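Team,

Forwarding the record for the chain on the shared tracking sheet. I've put the sequence and predicted structure together so nobody has to dig through attachments.
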Amino acid sequence: MAGFRVARHKLFARRFLARAAMALFPEDRAKRRSFHDAALDAGAKLYAERADALPDDASRFQECHRALVLAGVRCATLLGVERATALKAIGDVYRDLSQDVPRQRFQMLLTFAPNPLRILQKTGTAKELRRMMGQDMVVKDDVGPEHYALVVEGCAYNDFFKRHGEPDVTLVFCQADRAWMDVVNRSKRRLSVSRPNTQSTGSSTCIFRYENASSPVKPNVDVAASHAGDRGGASA
């Protein structure tokens, strides 16, 4: 598995590409094998382009994710899959494989914290996000009297796909966030989360804004989900 030398990277590559191949070509074993081998080779080459220049292990692991998703989309289309179909299938697989930790984190917060918003205001999430997703993410906490927001000023995902000429693939990662955002917005607690801005849809920042809903119907603003739906991309 040239290019993916770390055991964690190899394991993710095997799991992701096996599931993506099955989702894309459920009835065609030969195409599943062709897709798997081609995407693995292409992903390893994309990863190797700048992995050694990244600042930490977390950044390199996320670069592995980005490289495999882009390689998967490209190889699927070369094998005759419509691009929108490839984005959706690969996005669904990626969301299922990548979001257990944030989903569980918010489930615990909503289950055990007397006031989840106050916990977010007190602790923030920027430091933890950079620890998990890499120091190449430029993020900050924004705390107000009635809200907490995570502001992403520099998104390594958006930068990666723009650099490779396919910025729409960033929405695969934006849509993966719905796995934990839905945990918050579907809970019976007052806490809600919205995403009014993303770099992937043309804004200068991405904003995840948390507040306590004033009515039983929570606001569920998500510009990335709306944009993906308009373009026929990955589903929420």
